Amino acid sequence: MTESCCAPGGRGGHPAPQSGPASVPPPPRSAHAPPPSLVELAGGAFRMGDESVWAYPGDGEGPVHEVVVGPVRVDAFAVSNAHFAEFVAETGHRTDAERYGWSFVFAGFLPHDFPDTRAVANAPWWRQVYGSDWSHPEGPQSDVETRGDHPVVHVSWNDANAFCAWSGTRLPTEAEWEYAARGGRERNAFPWGDDLEPGGAHRMNVFQGRFPAENTGADGFLGTAPVDAFPPNDFGLYNVTGNVWEWCADWYDDGYYAQSPRDDPRGPPQGTNRVMRGGSYLCHISYCRRYRVSARSAIEPDSSTGNLGFRVVADG
Questions:
Q1: Is the pTM of this model over 0.85?
Q2: CATH of 52-94+153-315, one of 3.90.1580.10, 3.90.660.10, 3.40.50.2300, 3.90.850.10
Q3: What is the pLDDT of residue 21?
Q4: Cα(295)–Cα(189) distance, integer angstroms
């Protein structure tokens, strides 16, 4: 799996601050009701995975196999900055990015006079930026004051899990995520069909132009888009592809599909990376075709980047 093009991976051996553990235990489950934007899905059987020319063999997108998921309630939207801010205000949670003191930022968002910082060797458009976190997504000179309705980013799997404990929700399994993202459609690359831009219309937020040097913003956005941008899929879910990658509950294994159970698979029992799904505003056909409903990627659970967020679910 070529993970560096989509997200730059873990902290590269940089230790967590010595003032506390590498990841903060989730707070006690609160009395919060799950968000009203949860959509009730009946569950059922669907064909999961992809073996077409679009698929990356190293990602383990195949074999295509039948999976049955149970009833589940899926948030119509990725978790927004505003909703995450409520969680932080109530719990005092400090994200892994804040604890480490830095996160990965797309170089195209940095000012021309921004000091040189460490770049990822195989993906130099990713820069290590000190002071970048969920409330400062492009570094300490930025904020989210006008982006309350945009998806929260620079959140690790640990942070997403803590939010779920607070909000009475959980992260979706990888099977639940793909079932929901497909919206009842079989074998299509995207939630609406197989054409990236049907009739010339933009249906999701991905990189437009010449990656990584020139983003024309033809779809209306250079970075994240509001969580309700673009039409929803047939289940009423927004931005399941493009915009930001979304954490799933599962550990990642590129061979898991070959032996996964048919009923309600929950991923391998252990691993080093957690699954992320859906692609992001940085996906471009010239180097990353992972903006499809079947595409998979994964990074370490303490990782955080400017194009990675999450969506919550609750039991049906």
A1: yes
A2: 3.90.1580.10
A3: 35
A4: 9
